[in-house]
Amino acid sequence: MTELSSNTSASLASNVGEKRGYWSRVGRDGRKLGKWFVAPTVALLIFIVIFPLLMQLYLSFTWWTPLDGVPWYQAYESFNWGENYLILAYDPAFWAALWRTAMIMLVAVPAQFFLGLGLAYLFIDKFPGRKVFYSIVLTPMMVVPAVVGLMFFLLFQGTGPVNDSLGLPASFSWLTDPNRALISVIIADTWQWTPLMFLILLAGMLGVPSDQLLAARLLGGSNWQNFYKIILPRMKSVIAIAIVLRLVECFKIFDLIFIMTSGGPGVATETISLFLYKKTFADLDWAYVGAVGLAVLIVLSLIAAFGLSRVAKNKG
Amino acid sequence: MSSIQINNVTKRFGEFTAVSDLSIDIEDGEFVALLGPSGCGKTTTMNMIAGLEEATEGEILFNGQDLSHTPIQQRNIGFVFQNYAIFTHMTVYKNLSYGLEVNNVPKDQITSRVAAMAKRMNLTHCLDAPAASLSVNEMQKLAIGRSAIAEPRIFLLDEPLSNLDAGFRAYMRSELKVLQREFGQTMIYVTHDQIEAMSLADKIAIIDQGKLMQYGSPLEVYNNPCNRFVANFVGSPKINLLDGQIKGANGSTKLITQGGAEVALQGKISSDFAKLKSSKGGSIGIRPQDIYFGEKRASDDIQLHGYVEELERVGPKRLVHLQVHRTQIVAEDERDALSIGDEVEFFLTADKCMAFDLDSGDRLTGGAA
Question: What are the boundaries of the signal sequence (chain B) (predicted)?
């Protein structure tokens, strides 16, 4: 359809071009001209996306580290036929970090989704003070993650307000207990990112035509039936986008954990990002980091592709 | 099925009064049109009947029962929206079955009732199609079918025909009438199109600026408008209204138009104007088909002189736009003998002339002629 119309308009433009002068010639040459317009952006993209990616791929097939004293482009001297990937496959620290990351994703994202959905539903109808509450609900999202980390670091101290208000003794530790540290991180992440879910889901919910909701009510549908059968199905795309966005963000979670626990106690909260951080700056094992990074990229791409393919399907 | 009584209903939005002191009695099975210009409060009235808005004052009774504290879901009111509000993410079947499903009707009943309604509405061929793929005309039918399938106590239609193309609109108009007879349902129909209202409704409620102007059968409203607004709103081609100052007393009354034309009034119309109190003047209303050319037919008929400004063909008839001292009068030309620029004598049939007070708009009737 679009191809057809663009063909038609192109042929129209060329027809006109034979009769008229300058502007129609610009139209006809538009394609060539356009290429020059996007060229700087493409060059920039190659420089900041494609090139580092290829460089990483290249390094990941070697034993190269910055301590070798060999420039990176001579890393081929220690080419190892992909042994880094073999090491990766059998690296328990990597798999443990991946598992912890998955735990955060699988607990935090659904929690954020349901909380956000519930909040959004409360905000469909107008009520006094709606604008004020709206701003309050959105505030956590605006705070810098590192600051959120510090806030929750303080809140979860043994003598901190959380233990105080729950009546727990100072010896009941959150951040220094291997089991509870991950829970603390999930709570902090949920606190910060539920507002984003709320914001996206509210936009989706407000996009459901109000007269359809009215019609459903007049037909006798209860609020729950109408929510389940009218609102939710119409929000499929928005929900997919929100969840994919949060899953990917969760996968990359770093600053919050870095401040709260630095991955500890031990490695109890060491996610993929922290694992990579340690490997990069503590072990200087850059070739291996390249391999891990690419593996992570593939996982993330699969998540995004799966989620967003559903969006594309819904559109049609 | 249900009768509806609207008793002294007022609706205010803040300072703005959308509907004021409206009272209408609708009998069971009646087809009533709420007619008025945009923003007159007719949709607000409909929303109040449906329960989408709450009346500020007054009450609305269904079979004598006040439903204002019944949730919308339990009122069982059929409502067809102006843009149909079809559930576009569902199939046609699901749209039709929605009202039954949410009311826990047994599965096998749903299937048979949906099939029957689809057949009635000519939608059988597209039952499994996504509702979004339907044409506007089919959506209209689906919207009506979806509301009708739950057998609502009353049926409300909010300008249901305004989005249709002209041909289908005429078809749908007669279809609606047939459907109403079949369902035997009380129907309330909101429209700003007086032709729709005239052709469909058993009774018309004409509303202007939130107030009920007149409530009656189409013929009653047409032949006997109770004020200048109703006279002007109902009828196509429009009624002619000759505004001017009324001079003189019984017997030799005159209406002097702004353009300076003097119209001598006799008989009934003259005595009608005897009731005129306002200083702003009066107004004579006469429908185009009640104007004739040639020989004077009755002694009281009003004689005017003007020239033909424009001729307009409307089907087999021809409308003549006559200019009388800068006042335009439209007449039906039965003889088809006039041409532009002609100077003609023409007559207003006296017993069809209506007298209005120009200030209040009220109809003036003088009793004994």
Answer: none
A135 and A151 both lie in a single domain: yes
**A279–chain B nearest CA distance, Å:** 49
**Mean pLDDT, chain A, whole residue set:** 85
Q: Which of A84, A115, A139 is the last residue of a domain?
A: A84
- Residue B124 reports pLDDT greater than 70: yes
CA angle A150, A156, A162 (to 5 degrees): 125
Report the residue of chain B nearest A227, measured CA to CA.
B102
Token pair recorded at residue B352: 């069809």
Task: With CB atoms and an 8 Å threshold, state whether A219 touches B85.
Answer: no
Across the interface, whether the CB atoms of A219 and B150 are under 8 A apart is answered: yes
Question: What is the domain extent for residue A20?
Answer: 2-84
Band of pLDDT at residue A197, cut at 50, 70 and 90: very high
Q: Which of A208, A213, A219, A225 to mutate to test the interface with B (most CBs of B within 10 A)?
A: A219
* pLDDT (0 to 100) of residue A40: 92
Provide the whole-model pTM: 0.76
Please tell me the distance from the alpha carbon of residue B133 to that of residue A41, in angstroms, as a whole number. 40
Cβ–Cβ contact B132 with A under 8 A: no
B 55-84 → A contacts, CB under 8 A: 72-79, 81, 83
Interface of B with A in 136-175 (CB under 8 A): 146-147, 150
Instruction: Give the Å distances, CA to CA, from B339 to A311, B46, B287, B304, B315.
Output: 67, 48, 21, 18, 18
Rounded distance between C-alpha atoms, residue A79 and residue A158, angstroms: 50
Confidence bin at A8 (pLDDT 50/70/90): very low
Residue A19: predicted pLDDT: 53
Clarify whether residues A66 and A166 are in a common domain: no
Helix (H) or strand (E) holding B257: strand B253-257
Same domain, B196 and B244: no
Q: Are A275 and A211 in contact (CB under 8 A)?
A: no
Residues facing residue B354 across a β-bridge: B285
Distance in Å, alpha carbon of B263 to nearest chain A alpha carbon: 54
Interface probe, candidates B98, B114, B153, B159, chain A, greatest A C-beta count within 10 A: B98
Are A212 and B52 in contact (CB < 8 Å)? no
pLDDT of residue A27: 62
Among chain A, residues having any CB pair with chain B shorter than 8 Å are: 209, 211-212, 214-222, 225, 229-230, 233-234
Contact A218 B103 (CB under 8 A): no
Provide, as residue numbers in chain B, all residues whose Cβ is less than 8 Å from the Cβ of A313: none
Domain CATH code at residue B336: 2.40.50.140
pLDDT by residue (tens digit) across A45-70?
Answer: 999 999 999 998 998 998 888 888 88
In this structure, the answer to whether residues A92 and A10 fall within a common structural domain is no
**CATH of residue B226:** 3.40.50.300
| Residue carrying the six token digits 């991950």 | A182
**What digits encode the pLDDT tens for the residues B228-257?**
999 999 988 889 998 888 887 656 788 888
List of residues 6+ apart from B148 with CB closer than 8 A:
B78, B117, B155, B179, B183, B185
